[in-house]
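Researcher: Next entry in the queue.
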Amino acid sequence: MNRSSLRCVLTLLVLVLLAGCKTELNSGLTERQANEETALLLRNGIPASREMDAKTNTLTVWVEQSRFADAVDLLRAHGLPRQHYDSIAQVFKGNGLIVSPTEDRARMIYALSEELSHTISDIDGVLAARVQIVIPDNDPLRRDAVPASASVFVKYKQGSHVNELVPQIKMLVSGGVSGLSYDKVDVVLVPAELPPAPAAPIRMQEVYGIWVYSGSAETLRLVLAAVAGLVVLILALGGRLAWHSRHRLMRRVPGRGLILR
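Model: Structure for this entry, 261 residues:
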């Protein structure tokens, strides 16, 4: 085995052993979702990286195995990954089936709820939002018709000014649903609970010319020591085999010393 091949084998061995120190956190993410999660984890001292899946064209976020629980709690407290909302186009897919007026009406109410929830979740400081719309099926001939109503649940980041935007949220919902008045919209605000203690800042450490996270420094030293021991063992065995092979090719002849067979 030449020096170039040996270097490639050792590099692959180190990468494989180091990969065992990381675990998958979230997969199937868009670039925006992966960037948000990675940035949040790094800002809070949790080493993280992202990796592209060429088959699905999505991203996977990886963290150190020892910090997996901290990463899950941190993402949950900040509402990540963000909730997926169906659009009207997704709700009303052309499936070629004939639906009843009741089903069609229920789908329209659900689509409106999803669209409004998505809009409210884009407000700065909002981590999650859910809009529940109630539109009674009133008889047009009745005079005592039941008015439409809506309930809005908002989970927001502590320290933000979402509570000052309640009138705008109510106006947004009432304006997006036909027949819904401003005073029939209730908004419930719930602050998110952040992790009890912030994580330590990320520290890098140099190990034999390789910069790694401090938490992985000891693991890298053990891996390199194991690789070095393996290389020494391979070289020793190779030298011994070479010596035996050369010794077998030679024989001693009286008066002429050693000659090759």
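Model: The mean pLDDT is 78.
Researcher: Noted, moving on.
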